[in-house]
Amino acid sequence: MSVPATDDTAHGRTGRGMRLTLRIWRQPDAGSPGGMHTYEVEDISPDMSFLEMLDTLNEALILRGEEPVAFDHDCREGICGACGMVINGQAHGPERTTTCQLHMRHFADGDTIDIEPWRAAAFPVVRDLVVDRSAFDRVIGAGGYITVPTGSAPEAHATPVPKPDADAAFTHAECIGCGACVAACPNGSAMLFTSAKVNHLNVLPQGAPERETRVLDMVDRMDEEGFGGCTLTGACATACPKGIPMPSIAAMNREYLRAARRTGNRS
Amino acid sequence: MSTPYESWTTGEPLVDTKAPDGPIAERWKRRRFEMKLVNPANRRKHTVIVVGTGLAGGSAGATLAEAGYRVVQFCYQDSPRRAHSVAAQGGINAAKNYRNDGDSVQRLFYDTVKGGDFRSRESNVHRLAEVSVEIIDQCVAQGVPFAREYGGLLDTRSFGGVQVSRTFYARGQTGQQLLLGAYQALSRQIAAGTVEMHPRTEMLDLLVIDGRARGIVARDLLTGRIDTYFADAVVLATGGYGNAFYLSTNAKNSNATAVWRAHRRGAHFANPCFTQIHPTCIPRSGDHQSKLTLMSESLRNDGRIWVPKKAGDHRPPQDIPEDERDYYLERLYPSFGNLVPRDIASRAAKNVCDEGRGVGPGGQGVYLDFADALARMGRAAVEEKYGNLFEMYARITAEDPYERPMRIYPAIHYTMGGLWVDYDLQTTVPGLFAIGEANFSDHGANRLGASALMQGLADGYFVLPATLGDYLARHPHTDTPTADHPAVHEAVSAVTERLYALLSNQGDRTPDSFHRELGELLWDECGMSRTEAGLRKALERVPQLRAEFWERVRVPGSGETLNQSLEKANRVADHLELAELMCLDALHRTESCGGHFREESRTEQGEAARKDEEFSYVAAWEFTGTGRPPVLHREHLDFAHVHPTQRSYT
């Protein structure tokens, strides 16, 4: 498709695309050492998403007979949570959004961009920019649900939920499980991820029967998976593309203490 | 080619032997009562494979495991939480009648049959409407944070094409929240050991042994290992085939391989030409475009759609005076205006762009203007209602929709066609079931907004778990197939050889370049409007492109590691076969209906004209070989409860 010159002017674009130097972490598999490799790309449109810029590189690499850079991605709408890379030292890059929703207009012609996978003990690198985040699934499996076998649910209006509680639940339920919080944390902690789910369910009346076991089991699992401890740096909430708030962690700590006191056998 | 693909033949009519008769409101109840049950103690002896973890697959896997079956489940994503159901924005319909506005199961049934332009089965749609109310109960109990009123009760909103307020929603992220509910229920079963979950594993073939679906061949995407998995029944919940068009609102890795491989193994493919084009997507910004993003159609409640009256008018919108603008939907459809149904709005946008009056890069866009709404409601009210959508638009386009009209253009969004299934959701291969978007069953030729989530969860939570039990009770298996069975050996060899062929080809084109070319061809000839000449042209070109693909594709790397080029090439190969069937189906159906618009079949006003006498049937195609003419099996559709009428919106 050709782009008429008049429209370029109307949209404030220059005629030529950007030229960039990319330094990308390449690692053939989990067991092999990796390193930064340098690539040049040109004719990058400011309207491209970051992943479309990488598509351009990969198309060129294939034609040169080289293996393209592996990265996770799927919906490219900022909701599935599949994509994520550390761009110039920041999880998901300079804007507070997912990598797929970051656009090249936030970079300048001639820039050098460093691209690395999430770095965390609990997220081993699988290949290039792809990491293994299955620890998150196991944290959810430890208690991030409400036990309600299909068909056993009461009529939806049987239990009204005060709007502020419903809204609070939604705020925490927005987590997309991308792992940026863990990648941004100097300790590789998953406190924000875990607290988002604990608070989503514990604030609702439907979640009350499993309130204590949920928080105790999820936190235990989180520790077993090798995530680091929380020192309240706030890096997680700053990196979170969905704006899960920092007080979420404090609320989970409160839930944890309450549960530990009530059950009396854990702390 | 000795036999042109177009010379398809007609086979025996297809009869849905599971469809009960009697009063329509009693049919599902009756069918359930007639079903044979599996003794709870015997359920763990049955293994069920579920492919896919979206709303349909996730809910089915969790429910079957709760019931006591042994479930082995697969998804290509790194986690079952990421399936593309997650991206659905608007909401989920249910006939709760909480608004006391006259809604009922009967009305939801009626709206859905009519919205589907009278090409769906009445029995199935009625069951869907009945089950809709249970879905909301189930999801609320799971902790899905639906929007609520200050009194603590659930809020609803109205949605395209209906006169009641029956859409439940969770801001603009209803799909995400419903999926997380299903994913959490599934996670509970995985942790309990009742579901054996295989993420990053892709189904590449179906194992049919002694006429029954008995397993799948799948590839571990990290190690490249090809494995066989055996079961007593196989459930496909693998979504639609919108990505055949390359540019669509689907996730990048959504693909048709599972359904196409099943089709090649004997599952008939129904109504492949019924594809839905959504009118309000963000237009492409250049050749680099990798996918399209949907903007909720609720924007059409307050935005006005227009293009310049003059072709080739490249002035910025604010410089185009009022009397030189064409608010074409308001002009053509004065009574519905900007709120005409999806298919009508999409075609009208295409028409004005074809006349050279489109706006933005490439002239592929129309304005959606909120200037009047901002003046009438004030900025705060517009922000309250549409803030998150405006923000998303600004992030993608770098244009401020408060200052400058949005640019929108239609895009492929959903596929109504899919594997043919009977009332029990079983395909023509015994023991193979298809649920959610992967089947064809409930939406006819056009799906209504907020009905996809409803169908996915209806199938997965309530319908399939009941009907699958009946199949298992009637077909107890005493044996477990083994890897040395000839059918297994043949399937594994075919999969392995195909991957080897892709890897060893020393070609000069990337898999994506073929996918883009196929997508453009389909969009032009089998997209928003279709003609006999265009479809014949596409039917000539698709096999050529397929041949070129196998000659010229290049896939670097090996099959023993994570190789995303190989995954992509393998999916494109299947899209190149499916595309041919889509075009043939569109060619054979010389009527217009719903999302399928044949330019030769229109009313005097230029709208879609159905031909009920000739085409009141489901077209189920039987595979006979790659590029060989398929066999058409017609399933006649009866409308005893909703009388077919011609739609008019002028």
Automatic annotation (TrEMBL), chain A:
Q: Which cofactor does it need?
A: [2Fe-2S] cluster; [3Fe-4S] cluster
Molecular-function GO terms, alphabetical: 2 iron, 2 sulfur cluster binding; electron transfer activity; metal ion binding
Q: Where is the 4Fe-4S ferredoxin-type domain?
A: 166-196
Q: Does the keyword Transmembrane apply?
A: no
Q: Name one Pfam family in it.
A: Fer4_8
Can you tell which superkingdom this protein's organism belongs to?
Bacteria
The family line of this record is: Belongs to the succinate dehydrogenase/fumarate reductase iron-sulfur protein family.
Q: What is this protein called?
A: Succinate dehydrogenase
TrEMBL record, chain B:
Q: Which InterPro entries match?
A: FAD-dep_OxRdtase_2_FAD-bd, FAD/NAD-bd_sf, Fum_R/Succ_DH_flav-like_C_sf, Fum_Rdtase/Succ_DH_flav-like_C, SdhA/FrdA/AprA, Succ_DH/Fum_Rdt_flav_su, Succ_DH/fumarate_Rdtase_cat_sf
What's this protein's family per the entry?
Belongs to the FAD-dependent oxidoreductase 2 family. FRD/SDH subfamily.
Pfam families, alphabetized: FAD_binding_2, Succ_DH_flav_C
A GO biological process this protein is involved in? anaerobic respiration
Q: Does the keyword Cell membrane apply?
A: yes
Which cofactors are named for this entry? FAD
Domain Fumarate reductase/succinate dehydrogenase flavoprotein-like C-terminal span(s) in chain numbering = 515-649
Reaction(s) catalysed by this chain's protein: a quinone + succinate = fumarate + a quinol
Quote the catalytic residue positions: 342 (proton acceptor)
What is the name attached to this protein's record? Answer: succinate dehydrogenase
Source organism per entry reads Streptomyces cacaoi
Enumerate the UniProt keywords alphabetically.
Cell membrane, Electron transport, FAD, Flavoprotein, Membrane, Oxidoreductase, Transport
| Chief localization | membrane
Q: Which GO terms describe its molecular function?
A: electron transfer activity; flavin adenine dinucleotide binding; steroid dehydrogenase activity, acting on the CH-CH group of donors; succinate dehydrogenase (quinone) activity
Membrane topology, from the record: Peripheral membrane protein
